[in-house]
Amino acid sequence: MIIGVTGGKGGVGKSTLSVGIVHALVKHGYKVLLVDADVECPNDHLLLGIQINEMVHAREVTVGKPVINEDECIKCGVCVRTCRESALFQLPGQVPQLLSDQCIGCGACSLACPVKAITEIPERVGDVYRYDVPNTSGRLTLLTGMLKPGYEEASPVVNVLMDVMEDVREGFDYVIVDTAPGTHCNVISSLRHVDRAIAVTEPTPLGAHDLDLILTLGTELKVPMSVVINRAGIGDETEVDDVVSKHGVPVIGRIPYDKRIFESYVRGEPIEHESINYIVNRLTGG
Ligand code: SF4
Ligand code: SF4
Fold first, then answer.
1. How does pLDDT run across 249-284, given as a tens digit for each residue?
2. Ligand 2 centroid to 53 CA: how many Å?
3. From the CA of 116, how far away is ligand 2's center (Å)?
4. Which of these, 33, 40, 31, lies nearest to 18 by C-alpha position?
5. CA–CA separation, 276 vs 234, rounded Å?
6. DSSP at 54
7. Using one digit for the tens of pLDDT, what is the confidence trace for 222-236?
């Protein structure tokens, strides 16, 4: 089973919960693949005490960046009007210029060019790494996607990460996909591959607002959703309860604002807590 751990906003404890769930599943004897799909800021490896240079490079992620042949270009501007990312601009009567940072390598401009004046040159935008975590009797493997600094569009890295996940997932009892926060394209790319997803939230008005967004996205993607309330007890849960009722989804766990959890987090260790075991039991039917 592939389980997404997601959240409408950052900082709600998504990665901490993912690693905590994985840790508990491994302790229960399951073979687990953890996929860190928060490729702009991956940190599951840090929570497992792993440095990125210890991991095995699994795949390079490239996108095709357009190069315009100035001799062939008839300066019609079709490519500029086709680009939805505003990555091409054109001064009157000139050959269009590329704003490389904004180009996501979708290839639409080269397809649209009436005289085939655009070719695509592969450019590396990120990498996927794999690590078979030692001292787990082969029961825990981590896949991490990493967007190259300076690039804004994370979806190509998430898409390749999902391909690698599909290639290696056989033999694992559970795959836990720690998505990016929010509801944008790379979150959608991750959630399209999961069987079910947990939305992590916290009992604040902002947490409730963003929970509403991510549960709406889950409904649109037809992904069965459940909710975990992190830092339970720090505030009034009425607004979160209202959102949960509106979407008719179950709350499968409440993680209290507990000193032991905070101390594990500060030490960079996977959290071990009865609230995590409760969630894992709900997930495994135990
Ligand atoms: S490849 Fe796509 S994003 Fe890049 S310039 Fe062409 S149309 Fe725009
Ligand atoms: S669509 Fe082709 S011919 Fe037209 S401006 Fe762009 S590169 Fe030049």
1. 999 999 988 777 777 766 767 777 889 999 999 999
2. 42
3. 8
4. 33
5. 18
6. G
7. 999 999 999 888 888
- Average pLDDT over every residue of 52-70: 94
- What number does the ligand 2 atom closest to the CA of 72 have? 3
Which amino acid, 43?
N
Q: Token pair for residue 16?
A: 């901490």
**Degrees to nearest 5, angle at CA 95 with 89 and 99:** 35
Q: Is 125 in the pocket of ligand 1 (CB under 6 A)?
A: no
Q: Which residues pair with 124 in a beta bridge?
A: 62
* pLDDT of 187 above 90: yes
Distance between CA atoms of 142 and 52, rounded to whole angstroms? 11
The upper half-sphere exposure of residue 273, i.e. CA atoms within 13 Å in the direction of its Cβ, equals: 25
Which of 56, 51, 108 shows the shortest CA–CA distance to 79?
108
The strand ranges marked E within 99-179 are 118-132, 140-147, 174-178
**Nearest CA-CA partner of 14 in 198, 154, 225:** 198
DSSP secondary structure code for residue 52 in this structure: G
Q: Where are the beta strands (DSSP E) in 193-270?
A: 196-201, 225-232, 251-256
Q: How far is the CA of 217 from the centre of ligand 1 (A)?
A: 26
CA of 223 to the centre of ligand 2 (A): 41
- CA of 116, nearest ligand number: 2
pLDDT digits (tens, 9 = 90+) for 101-137: 888 888 999 999 999 999 999 999 999 999 999 888 8
Strand 32-36 and strand 2-6: the pairing is unpaired
What percent of the chain has pLDDT above 90? 74
Nearest atom (ligand 1) to Cα of 88:
5
Instruction: Identify the pLDDT of residue 142.
Output: 97
